[in-house]
Design goal:
By secondary structure, this protein is α/β, with parallel strands linked by helices. The chain contains 16 helices and twelve strands. The strands form three sheets. It has an eight-stranded parallel sheet. Bound molecules: glyoxylic acid. The site of glyoxylic acid has 6 residues, from loops.
Length: 387
């Protein structure tokens, strides 16, 4: 049995166990992948300030995100096709999150439906919404999330059209995979994945298939987004969706202080500083580099969360010390899920928790609420001088 000490260990096992097309889907950024790479490498530019002779007993990482208690401020991000990384992947990840005491966010583009996840979990999860041209479908989706008692609506704003990920096109990404000579050759090396997949009914986009008519190819993320996502989404429409939902709303995909101010105006409960894991606008700045200017603009008026680039508890610590009140992991939990199912997601959360807890202590802090910029050493010009 492999000894897992860091997220990279899970990634190595994940790469061996999961069909290449789904590994590539998770592991890609758009076009040149510059933003995807910088999301992680920019965290390395920040350093932590070591402090000593501070009583480190009685530590806690517990906190709150949008008023909900969390064991640590690290939520599972919405990730499309999670149920293709491992059979019933969304259910397994949601159960691991629930046991650990952190929020799970179900993607609109999930394999397991809202109802399937609700049936197998006992605490409310968050639902991520993509806005579609078909207003009636959006309304029904919102009603389904309400009926499932989802406790927050996470509206994604940075994917009205899809940024191109070369490998997905070359691999012919679909859910379930289409059986071409290339995919069959690869699937033959992934027996455990295949047998588990044969044991579940959840193999298509569960929130879509059976809920809408007239889609040319319901197995393809690319054609669904091109045909159905609403390119006309604007702030007025966001305000309407917020009203339709009537509960807590988190706006995901904010990467600019001006947009953060608009999010504040529509009355969001929180924003997520995110560039969609480097999967949309290639050439955009990393989330961690944009965080300070967004905090300066709205941080005292709205809860600011950070997503994109977090692979360790030290990254979480840096984001929190900068001023974020919550963080998200996407790929880091997917590696665990593909490697070892529910147990792998729990392991990913444990690894990140331990790294956060110990690093926080070595910075002389006992609680996440004590974290502030004094914990960080930020190089001059970290945000860059961009005209
Ligand atoms: C969808 O959310 C994607 O990034 O593929």
């Amino acid at each position: 049995m492999a000894v897992i000490t860091e997220i990279k260990d899970l990634k190595r096992i994940y790469e061996r166990r999961v069909p290449r097309m789904f590994y590539d889907y998770a592991e890609s950024g758009s076009w040149t992948e510059q933003t995807f790479r910088e999301n992680t490498s920019d965290f390395d530019q920040l350093r932590l300030r070591q402090r000593v002779a501070v009583d480190m007993t009685g530590r806690s990482t517990a906190s709150q995100m949008i008023g909900q208690d969390v064991a640590m401020p690290v939520a599972l991000a919405p990730v499309g096709l999670t149920g293709m990384q491992c059979a019933d992947g969304e259910i397994k990840a949601a159960r691991a999150a629930e046991e650990f005491g952190v929020p799970f966010t179900l993607s609109t583009m999930s394999i397991c439906s809202i109802e399937a996840v609700a049936e197998k979990t006992s605490k409310p999860f968050w639902f991520q919404l993509y806005t579609m041209k078909d207003q009636d479908y959006v309304r029904r989706l919102i009603e389904r999330a309400k009926a499932a008692k989802c406790s927050a609506l996470v509206i994604t704003l940075d994917l009205q059209i899809l940024g191109q990920r070369h490998k997905d096109l070359k691999n012919g990404l679909s859910a379930p995979p289409k059986l071409t000579a290339k995919t069959i050759a690869n699937l033959m090396t992934k027996w455990t994945w295949g047998l588990q997949m044969l044991g579940t009914k959840n193999r298509e986009f569960g929130n879509i298939v059976g809920h809408v008519d007239g889609i040319s190819d319901a197995s393809s993320l690319g054609s669904w987004t091109a045909e159905q996502f609403d390119p006309a989404l604007d702030w007025a429409k966001i305000a309407k969706i917020k009203e339709m939902w009537g509960g807590k709303v988190i706006l995901k995909g904010i990467l600019d202080a001006e947009d953060a101010k608009m999010a504040l105006k529509v009355g969001a409960d929180a924003i997520i500083v995110s560039n969609h894991g480097g999967r949309q606008l290639d050439g955009a700045m990393s989330s961690i580099k944009m965080l300070p200017s967004i905090l300066d603009a709205v941080g005292d008026q709205i809860e600011v969360h950070l997503d994109s680039g977090i692979r360790s508890g030290q990254d979480v610590l840096k984001a929190l010390a900068m001023g974020a009140k919550g963080t998200y992991i996407g790929r880091a939990f997917v590696y665990g899920l593909g490697a070892m199912g529910q147990k792998g997601v729990t392991t990913a959360l444990e690894v990140i928790h331990k790294e956060l807890d110990i690093s926080m202590a070595l910075c002389g802090k006992r609680s996440v609420s004590d974290l502030d910029r004094s914990v960080l050493l930020v190089p001059e010009g970290f945000g860059g001088r961009w005209a």
